[in-house]
Amino acid sequence: MMSERVFGDILAAKLRGCYEKAVHVFRTIHQMDHFSVDVEQCPRCGRTKEGMRVKINAAPCRKQIGCDRCHRQGCELEEKAGEDLQAFYQCPHALLPLNDTTDECYCQSRMLAVHLGSAYPPKRPEDMKDLKPQRSSPSRKKK
């Protein structure tokens, strides 16, 4: 039988793996959102080339459209390429980052035991009274 701590570590590892996949998908979609178009005139600075078209870049993360001359800032996510996007979870007492160095928090243990039911009973039997799920309607007695 697994303890709550071991089971919590396994769930946290699976959550981290899912989050890494979600970040990869998000970055891929975000890179596809950056696009460029050749137009007659830059809508931001009004720049034109004689007999040629101007390349306009669209950056949805900065909500900007412009040519290379007036639109010098790159993608916000690419600037943070060395940093990972950080996931957080909300506990009753704080907003905590979810990563390998996160301090352990046991405030969710009771809720985890309620959701898992009898498959993984809590370690402390004295806590069983307040871990049982509440019924919304009173039980009916058979006559």
Topology:
Elements: H1 4-33, E1 35-39, E2 54-59, E3 64-67, H2 76-79, E4 88-90, E5 95-97, H3 109-116, H4 128-131
Antiparallel strand pairs: 1-2, 2-3, 4-5
Region (Disordered): 118-143
Biased composition (Basic and acidic residues): 123-133
Description:
- The chain has 143 residues and is α+β, with helices and mostly antiparallel strands.
- The protein folds into 2 domains: 87 residues, no CATH class; 40 residues, no CATH class.
- It is built from 4 helices and 5 strands.
- A 3-stranded antiparallel beta sheet has the order 1-2-3. A two-stranded antiparallel ribbon has the order 4-5.
- A hairpin with a 4-residue loop joins strand 2 and strand 3.
- The longest helix has 30 residues.
Number of E-state strands: 5
| Mean of pLDDT | 70
* Major sheet summary line: 3 strands, antiparallel
Radius of gyration: 26 Å
- H-E order: HEEEHEEHH
> Into which percent range does the helicity of residues fall?
25-40%
User: Can you count the helices?
Assistant: 4
The number of domains is: 2
Can you tell me the overall shape?
rod-shaped
Instruction: Report strand order across the widest sheet.
Output: 1-2-3
Q: How many angstroms does the end-to-end distance come to?
A: 40 Å
Class derived from helix and strand content? alpha+beta
Uncertain spans: none
What is the percentage of strand-forming residues? 5-15%
